[in-house]
Amino acid sequence: KLKSLLAKYKFQAKFSYFSKSDLPTSLMGEHNKENVAAAEIVTKQIKINKNIIKQAIVDFKGLEHRLEKVAYKGGVRYFNDSFATTPESVVVALRSFSAPIILLAGGADKMSDFKEIAKEIKAKVKYLVLFKGQGSVRLKKELLKQGFPRNKIKIVYDMKNGVKIAKSKRGFGDVILLSPGCASFGVFNNYKERGKLFKKYC
Fold this sequence. Notes:
- Strands 1-2-6-3-4-5 form a six-stranded mixed beta sheet.
- Helix 4 runs parallel beside helix 5 (115-124), helix 5 packs across helix 6 (134-145) and helix 7 crosses helix 8 (191-201).
- Helices cover 41% and strands 15% of the residues.
- The radius of gyration is 19 Å and the shape is globular.
- The longest helix has 16 residues, at 30-45.
- By secondary structure, the chain is an alpha/beta fold.
């Protein structure tokens, strides 16, 4: 649709279209395949060698606090996505995994709409740990409305206890994911502190 729409107008700039890259990458999620494809387009425009592009994508491990793989212990993978402070970014994170997920989320309220994230949590999450905050209160209410089991939700007041509970619910092959969808204030100073504490206690 976008291509046909742009065809109606005259632009001096050159347009390049892309979907998802099939180059090997350690980055999680379909959205990152699109990001890699965008990077490929740019590097090809400035005539960087294909082998250099491929190696750079293999070597790039992502950014801290953005679906960052931080540990693999006892058959369980741990991911720090503390930068995800909106429900939409959490939905993207949840869709990046096919394995059962134990999710650490919630916190301070940003007056977000939690309907879509609640649907995704119900579909993908086996246990939910929520950090104290008004955002968590509203998210829990929406989850219960959509039928998520009350006994699979736990409110915590700090990261140490949150990770401890998450670990107690883990099974071989599971993912323990910090992806809050809310602001950090109230329990943490900022998203960076929240992510670093998660990594400390994993």
